[in-house]
Each structure stands twice: as C-alpha cells, then as structure tokens.
Amino acid sequence: MSVDWDLPVHDFFEILDLGLARGANLLTAGELSVVRRMRALVDEQARVFARLSGRKRKVFAVDRLEFAGVADCGVAVDALVDAGLLTRFVPWPGRLEVLTVDELKAACRREKLRVGGRRDALVERVEGLRVGREREVVSLCHVGLIRRLERFALGRIYADRSQWVVERLGMVRWAEYKRTLGVALFPTRRDLLRWEAVLAAEHPVEDALALLEDPTRVWPPGRLDPRRRLRRSIFEAIRTIEREGAFGRAEALYKRLALWLPAGSAAVRLSRVIEHQGRGTEALWVLQEARSEARLGDRIASERAGRRVAKSLGLAWAPSRPLLVPKERRLRLSPAPAEGGRPRWEGGLAVEEAVASRLIASGRRVLTAEGPLWRTLFALLFAETYFLPVPGQLPVPFLSGPLDLATPQFRERRADAVATVLAGVRAGEAGDRLGVAVQHWWGVRLSGARWDLATPEELIALGSGFKPAALAALLEHLLDEGLRAAAGLPDLVVLAGDAVRLGDAHPSRVGQGVLLVEVKGPSDSLRDEQRAWNHRLLSAGATVEVWNVRS
Description:
The chain has helices at 7-23, 29-39, 43-53, 73-82, 92-95, 101-110, 119-126, 143-154, 163-167, 189-200, 205-213, 227-243, 247-258, 267-276, 280-293, 296-313, 351-361, 371-386, 408-413, 415-426, 430-441, 456-465, 468-481, 528-539, and strands spanning 59-61, 86-87, 137-140, 327-332, 335-339, 342-345, 366-368, 492-494, 500-501, 505-506, 509-510, 515-520, 544-550. The protein is 50% helix and 9% strand.
C-alpha cells in the first residue's frame, strides 16, 4: 500500500499542511524545521510516526509496536530516533506508562508488596523501584508542537483526529475564496503562548474569572476560543462551592460569572444561594428579573423556580403567557434486549431509529438527525454569505466558514445578503435556493454541514415542504444564537407525502405535510431547550408532535 493512501499518514500530513497554512507565522524557525522533517517522512517511518503522534500517550514499548504495512517497527523507530522525532531518554517514572497491570502485579510480587487495587495504586507502589528498566521504550518528541498544529488544522481546542472521519464522508474539497486582510488566528506568538497556557492549566475559580475579565487578553476566533470552556468549568466549580454550603462565596462568584453569560442564564442558581441565606424575597426578585430578560429555555427554568420560591414565601407568582405545547401521540413498539445500558426496540434499534423504521415501512420518508440536519440546511442556504469579502473574516486559506460565523457580528456585517436569503425563504423559495446551492456546494467543507445525513433531494424536499415562516424563524434563531442553538430541535423530520396510518399508534393517522417528531421513551421527558424549540416552531406555524413510545 502506498504511503499516500495510508489514511493515518494522509491525515497527519494534512494536519501539518493545514496547520502551516493557518499559523506558520506563529512558529519559530526551529519549529518550522521540525515540521519540515515530519513532512519529509516516507514509507514505514511515516506510517509509524503518524500513528504514534495521534495517540494520547507519549511513551511506547518498542516490542509492542505493530502496524499494518510496517514489516519491522524497530528499524523505523531507529530512523525516527536519528531524525530527532523520537527519543530513548525516558525517565523511570515514564517507563511505568508502558507496563500492563499484570506486569505491575508481577513486580509487586517480586518485592513482596500488595497486588490488589487499581492501576494507579500499583504504579504508586512500584514507582521508586525502577521497574521495567530492561525494556526498550521510546518517547514522542515535539508533542506540544504537534498538538498546536492539530488545533490550527482542525479549528478546535479538543483536537481529535477521528474528526477527519466526518471529513471523509463526502466533504472532499475546500471552498475557493479571496483572502481578506486581517489578523489570522493570533496577532502575535505571545498571544498564542498565553492561549496555550490557559488550555494547559487547571485554574482555581477566581483565577479563571480573572482570565475572562482581563481586557488585555486576545482570544482566537471560532472553536479555538476557550471562553465557553472556561465559563462551563467556572459554573461547575461554583456549583461545588454551593454544595459545600459556602453560599455567600457562591453568590459573589455567580454574580461575577453572570456578566459573561447570556442574560438570566445563571438566575436559578443565584436565587438558590440567596434563598439559602434567608433572603427569599430577594431570590424571588432575581427570578422575576430573569423572566423578563432571559432566553426562552432559561426563562422556563426561572418560571419553575419562581413558582416554588413564591409558594414557600406565601406570595403570588404571576404566570407568564403559557407556551404552545405539541400534540402527543402514543406508539407501541416491541422491546429488545438493552445494549450499553440504553433500552432497545424492534430489531435492537434505539427508540428514535425504531420510530423512523416504522414510518418508513408505512411509506413515508424520514430524516433522523436533530440539530445537525438543520445546521446543514443553514450552511447551504447561507453558503454564499460565508465567503463574502468581509474585512478580517477570511484571513487564511482552507477555512470552512468565516471567523465570525458563530457570533452576532456575522449577521451585522452581511446584513443585506442575510436579509435577501431570509426574504427568499419567507417567500417560499427555500426549495429552489437549496436546489441551486447543492449543485455548487455539495461536498464542500462548510461550517455546520454534514453530507452524510440526507441526500440533496431530501434536503430540497424539506426546504420545499416546510412552512416558509417556520423555516425563516428557525434560521433567524440560529443566526442570533449561533449554530450550537440547534440543540433541542426534534429528533425526526417526516417529509411531505401521502397520509398514512400506523398500527399500534393513537392517533393512528399521519397527515400529508412535513411533520417534526420529538420521540420520548418510557422514562424520558422534555428538556427545557426542547420545550423552547417546540414553542418557537409551533408559533411560526410548523407541525410538531411528541411521540410517547411504550412497550
């Protein structure tokens, strides 16, 4: 097999090439020299190094290395050591990484130590004994540089090469666009190093908040921006402080974090710690404020908490206008043995797949994709706007979308083009627009798009059959909140077709139009973001149902 068609090698070389294309200006001359050495690898050396560089571990036992297409891993390892890409200088504690549990237990027996317990306990017992010194081991060099290039190439903080599998599902070419002037990923190498330091460290909650509040810090664009990750870790840290009973400290931290979250999204937790300090009326006021400012999903949670707090105080809670609620349908399916702790249904399918299978058997076309399907529709409809020459938003090659895609500025900077697309959708032109888009953009790497979820014909049918006002409302919400806001959309899309009847369903008749279905098993219930999406879609005229599956 040629090394050019060895997929791990192909992916590794693509990471090197894309990483350089997007961030070569941020590397030192020494780092660029190392990258050139990696890119010059051939044959068995390339196969071995590509696989080792993709693993989480750094240390490897040479006698255990065995890869397809490599006749002698030892010879390849020797060449990689000579090239400075692997090293045999591995400290004794590092050598313990390659020992199996059985080998660790055998070492404990030799030293008359206890052999029970988990791997980390065994390692701790033999750590000072220089166990495994007779084994030939090697360690990966330049790990930090490799991870940096992975992040540049994949555009994500969590660089996982398995993401290339999705890339190979039809997304085979990059969009052609004219690069715009502007800062690429980081203005300077100093900003890059500060960003990497944020990723590498575990920050106490006050230090993490200080990072968010630092006005001098430059954050990278898109998925490389760690602030969402920071906010999530800060929130969980404050929850721990709250559970420990330090309510005053938790209150102060929640108030600081609330400045960096969407309005009202921290209101429920803040009200809880205020209530625990005996200030129930103030807690109720916090929830009332959130009700007027928060996004719909957070507002639902604030309403629920507000009713509880008001009841405990003996006060009235003025209810908001009720949300629209989908019609419900009951469907009986035959259960199958559980798999991995998750219930299975007819033929060993997950509940959503089993419902889709029943609908398909009745003669209807069904798409099972939740949020990713709608993000793909969004990407196709707005693909032309992705690559408009907005200053600073396409500064490097090989981008799948502009740097500001998931921000409110995306819409502001392309107001006329976005308004034209939305006007066309409202006028019922979505199907026609999708027909043109798939001819030009199908198979192109577009942010949000997945080409393995539906055929072009199915996407066009969805755009044509879905109510224009509902589709426009859905797209506007994704424009305002970002593509992540697609979480909570219904599980199934039943495309328009002849009305059918389903046995073991009540009601049994499924109408002709496009139907969105949220599937719930016996122990499942709607989440707040699902209730919010159901309300938005029903308000815009879409047909949405909740199907409750029972055995």
